[in-house]
Amino acid sequence: MTNLAEQRAMPHAATRRSRRFSIIWIVPLVAVAIGAGSLGTRCRKKGRQSKSRSRAGKDCRPANRS
After folding, report:
1. What radius of gyration, in Å, describes the C-alpha atoms of the chain?
2. How far is CA 42 from CA 8, 34, 46, 49, 55, in A?
């Protein structure tokens, strides 16, 4: 184990943080943009829809008209 004097004498590497945008992030961002565009196009084409379900409604049948 090293003593305190030896620890102080050991050199430390200088590090610096890079805040630059990494090019590797372009691929996921493009994929998200394509997915969002595709979803938006699909929703616009389909339009608003409403569905109503009722448990009592499944036993309903049209009246016999003779």
Report:
1. 33
2. 64, 12, 6, 13, 30
CA–CA dist 42, 49 (Å, integer): 13
Give residue-wise pLDDT tens across range 14-23. 887 777 778 8
Cα–Cα distance between 57 and 46 in angstroms, integer? 26
The most confident of the ranges 17-21, 22-26, 37-41, 51-55 is 37-41
| 4 vs 28 pLDDT, higher one | 28
Quick one: DSSP state of residue 55?
T
